[in-house]
Each structure stands twice: as structure tokens, then as C-alpha cells.
Amino acid sequence: MSDVPQSIDETLSLLAAQNYICGRDLGTVAFLGLSLGKPLFLEGEAGVGKTEIAKAIAAGLGRRLIRLQCYEGLDAASAIYEWNFAAQMIAIRTAEASGGADRGALQAELFSDAYLIRRPLLEAMEPHASGPPVLLIDEVDRTDAPFEAFLLEALSDFQVTIPELGTVKAVEPPIVILTSNRTREVHDALKRRCLYHWVDYPDYARELEILTARVPECEAVLSAEIVAFVQRLRGMDLFKNPGVAETVDWARCLVALDAVALSPEMVSDTLGAVLKYQDDIAKIAGAEASRILDSARADLARAS
Questions:
Q1: pTM, to two decimals
Q2: Where are the alpha helices (DSSP H) in the chain?
Q3: Would you state the pLDDT for residue 248?
């Protein structure tokens, strides 16, 4: 287990050791969140590295990563715990078959720790040998207002309540990171309890650094062309711009195809790795791919 970083530079070094490359602004917010024990609220387009920073922090600190994947209809009970009903029914039938079971003792046994299934929020509140875990509440914008209201209490007091067992309060609060793709606005009351940061698309230099760290086997020329091409794509009128995750995936696909440089044919054949909507692919494939590639190479020539 590692102690939390004592400076912004140490935080950036910790993240870089996990191949997570970011700017000083995000490194500063991460450092403050770790040192002050404040939840981080990271907002931005899909694929810009919001989820990955939670993984990097957990790995760098040697802490367990507990992920709560949000979805429409998620309620507090599903996020905290549930009872193992199948095992409870077996215990009831076994007691009935043996006869003479004490009803009160049976009820106490059925709603005991042995039949409790822990969900992410309860897991995050309990002690861990390696230290407080990293709790990732991913895509909180997919939930609804009642769940947001529940999170306000959970993140304020770092405790959850199980009616049959009582209140569980974290001895040491977990490191909490919330992410949002901004499919809807999250209530201000939840944001006020967090340190907020907008995670934007990286510029060319940083994205190339990220790609080099994540896919070191990719040839330098190919990496440069991939990043320049993707940067050009983000300036077009697409339904969904490619994120850094798509840049990395595309590079891995091209490496698997033994590519050493981009060609219009190679781009058209592999666009499904970087664009996820057919309308976008149809817009870029063919002559447009060749034009963008020429423009990307011109950008590289001017920069060199």
C-alpha cells in the first residue's frame, strides 16, 4: 500500500507510472481530492480518460477499486446490498424439515451477515487491509434524481443504512471519483460536495504521449499520423467525436495488421475502430479519408 502523494508533482508521477498521462490542471484536482478527502467529480465526453484515472489511482496507491456502474433505474438498495434469497429459502426449508426451529433465532440467522450480498457502496464503507478503497461511481448522469439525493447523504457522512442490521459508517472514507458524460445535468447539490473538473480532449502533443505510453509497439510515424488524423476528425461535424480510448484502440488494430503508416485504404477498412456510428463512417470513408489524411500529414510537416 502506498501513501497518498504529498504534492502535485508526486500525483502526476504516480499517474504516469500507471501510463496515465494528464495535464497539471487534472493532476492538481486529483492531488487536492486525495489530500483533502474530497470526492472528485469528473465530467467530459466519453473516452477522454475519466474512468481510467480511477483505475490509475487505485493501482498506484495499491488500493482496491470498487466500481458502481450507474444506469437508468438504479436505486439505493441495489447499490448498497441485497439478501441471498435462494440461500435463505434453503435455510427455512431445512429448519422446517428438522422441526422445532426457534422462529426468533431463525429470523435472526436469516438476516445476518452470512446471507448478506454486499454491493459497491457497502463494500466501499467497510475496512480494507490495504487501506480505504477507490470508489468509482461511473456515469452518474445515467441515474435519476432520487438516486442523486441518496448519494448526497452517502457522500456527506460516508455511511449507509441496512434496515435489518443498522448503519454502517466508514472508519476511513473511501477515495470517491464520480464521472459524467453529461447526457443530462447533474444537480448542483451533488457537485458542491465534490471537486469538479472538466476533462477535455487532449491536444496533439499530449495525445501522442498517451498513445506512446499505451501502445509502445506502435511505430513512431504511425503513431504521429494516427493522432494527427484523429485530431482532424474532432474538427468535423460528426455525430460522435472519437475519444482517446478510440485512438488507442485504433492504434492497436493497426499494429495487429502490421501497419507502419496510414493509407486511405487502411483508414477506410478500420474506421469502425475509431468511429462508432454508421453515418459518421459513411461520411469519412473513401475520398474524404484520403483528404483528411493529406491534411493530417500537412499538419505534421508544418510542425516538424
A1: 0.89
A2: 8-17, 24-36, 50-61, 76-80, 85-98, 103-110, 120-125, 145-157, 188-192, 204-214, 220-233, 244-256, 264-270, 278-284, 287-303
A3: 97
